[in-house]
Amino acid sequence: MSKSKTQRRSISSGTSSAQGYRFLNPYNFVRTLETRNAHIARLLGRCAPPPHDRYVGLTGRIYCRLTATTPIFVADGENVREEHVNGKIHRHYRFFRDPENKVAIPGTSLRGAIRAIFEAATNSCFAHFAGDKRLSYHLLPELALQLVPARVRKINTRWELELLPGTTTITPGQRPAGPQYAAWVHVYDPLQKSKTVAQSLSKPYAQRQKLSLTGFAHGELCHAIIERMIHPRRNFKFWNVVHLAKSAQSLPEPGANQLKVSGYLCITNQNIENKHDERLFFTNQKLSPLDLPDTVRQKYEELIADYQERHRDEVRKRRDPNRPQGTEPAFSRFIVEGRQKLTDGDLVYAMLDKVGNSGYKVRFIVPVSVPRVGFERTIGDLLYPSDLKKCATYDALCPACRVFGWVWGDETAVNPPELSVRTAYAGRVSFSHAVLTKDGGTFDETLAILSTPKPTTYRFYLRPRTGKPQNGQDDRQVDYNNQNQILRGRKIYRHHGARLNPQEYRSVNGVKSDQNRTVRGVQQAGSIFEFTVDFENLAPLELGALLWSLQIEGWHHRIGYAKPLGFGSAKIDIVKISLLHPEARYASFTSSGWHDQDQQKIDAWIKEFKQAMKLRFGAAFEMLANICDLKALLADTPPLPVHYPRPTRQPQPDGKQYEWFVGNKRGGNNPGPRIALPLAEDDVAGLPLIDKNGNIIP
Fold first, then answer.
1. Looking at the 3D structure of the chain, how many domains does it have?
2. Is the dihedral of CA 393, 395, 399, 402 positive or negative?
3. S-S: 269 plus which of 5, 89, 330, 509, CB 3.0-4.6 Å?
4. How high is the pLDDT of residue 585?
5. Which residues face 579 on adjacent strands?
6. Residue 442 in contact with residue 149, Cβ under 8 Å?
7. 529 domain-assigned
8. Which residues form a coiled coil (predicted)?
9. For the chain, how far is it from start to end, CA to CA, in angstroms?
């Protein structure tokens, strides 16, 4: 047995950090709860909020002290300085200032941080949740070979697909038995030197002549002379275009082993490093068009939108995204175009299923030959319980939406509400800026590049509905299409505490680019801020939930920028709370109506909240899954270093963190360990370093 296989076996059996270097992922998830007693503590469910035009509950002010327990930084939108580095813009930000130019944490940042805790603690809705979004995955190359070139046709209101499989009979579920379906049009020199050409200089493949596409357009009907060819390394057959002409132009007569054909030119740009050919879609077969169902068209348009969203920022930074930049490939044409809707004449690749002895139906269509494909299930389909979707009506708001506010926002709705229907509710809490009252010191730093969320990393973002995540399972057991998989919960960045290592937040070698920031005036741990929270018409249970969410048992809130890198931990203490008694205020010329509350009263409100949670969700408050997860992520300094998965102990300047995920999910005869992120409360043994080949590094 190889050493790497021994290491993989030991990690899947849950061995401890004695195995070698271990680290904790910067984020994990707070699980959601199933309601056990829906008729109890109805204020923890969905109901109509109280009015704003009269006093019907508790109204007052909470005075708070916030103490930074790690460096903390909240960017100011003003006085942003730009520095040009290697042709790109690197930005410098200062710490936020209030209207009096005092260092402060804006009330909006505080509100967002406290609401996130309140939502998790009260099992409220997922207020910012793209439930209709359909994520996508890379289709395996062996499956991509089954894709059939096709052209979309719209005839009146009917949508259909014209199949263009070249000279080869379509065999759904199998790679082409003859030459590949589309002809190759040699246009580019690869950005990376071709090993195939270098090793086959005497073969016809290496002697193919490049063609110019100047004057030709994507989707244009063309005439071509094609000849049969064999790939020298992979031994598959394909048709190579040797002459290309517009429909009105003439072509020479075809020679031996050549054909004259008509077809549609498919140009997707030089969108991968080793790309050398575009494609010509054609056929010499008489095939009936296929029906193109509405659901297939919709999923295609969602896929295009997903592609465009993934690359939007990168496209904006390119001078000409249709062309390579140095060794970086161009972006696909459909990404740059910005168009999402399917139109008559579009060229696509179709995955077909066999119907009967000789029929076909369309399973899905994609824009390129090695594509991403949308999952069958949307993100919303994986939310569990399903009633935690964003609140949709005024009369059925969750605790967080009633306390912090709500706006109807289903942009995908076909029929939005009538103007007479209430579509918003103002929150009953407001946060002042937190003004710096004790300066614990400051520093400037050029930060490491922050990673973007990667929800298609199934082993980190999904978990089984019952039981715990397991190591060693293949993709089909853990992806979005598996009916047993659900979303893990609410994403929380863990507190780093004394484990915070400057090497994790500093840019390696101080490198500056357009992907990272330099921050000025970062407040050191020990800095103190003070702020207030005004509330109105809260029920005692709601006030208890708010007070608990502010103090969170002395754990650490996560506020501001660079939380994955360890910034932004802070403790909040309640200095005092004052209640307004409206009757006393308006019945007397001398009484303000304000009365400070003692600690016993504060504890009683929090106790009422905890008791209601216990009764509604069926377990002692501290034993509820969401509270256990919050404690695991926010309570104490973790036992291990905290950083994103990567193949080395030290951060690398070339940013090869992705190699960890490549190696972890590696398939084939020598698969990677396929490690799943443990649940937050179980996440103590840590993750190993993994290289791109799936080997665990000690």
1. 2
2. positive
3. 330
4. 66
5. 60, 595
6. no
7. yes
8. none
9. 18
What is the torsional sign of CA 209, 215, 221, 222?
Answer: negative
Which two tokens mark 418? 């009538």
* Whether residues 118 and 214 fall in one domain: no
* Domain contains 631: yes
Looking at 644, 673, 690, which one is the last position of a domain? 644
Q: Are residues 459 and 477 in the same domain?
A: yes
The answer as to whether 696 is a domain residue is no
Give which of 197, 176, 174 is closest to 277, Cα–Cα: 197
The pTM (predicted TM-score) of the whole model is 0.87
Quote the pLDDT of residue 669.
79
Same domain, 516 and 582: yes
The number of beta carbons lying within 10 Å of the beta carbon of residue 42 is 12
CA-derived radius of gyration, the chain: 30
Residues 400 and 294 in one domain: no
- 449 and 331, same structural domain? no
Classify residue 51 as exposed, middle or buried by CB count within 10 Å of its CB (0-12, 13-18, 19+).
exposed
Quote the domain boundaries for residue 179.
Answer: 140-299+319-373
Q: With contact defined as beta carbons under 8 Å apart, do 558 and 616 qualify?
A: no
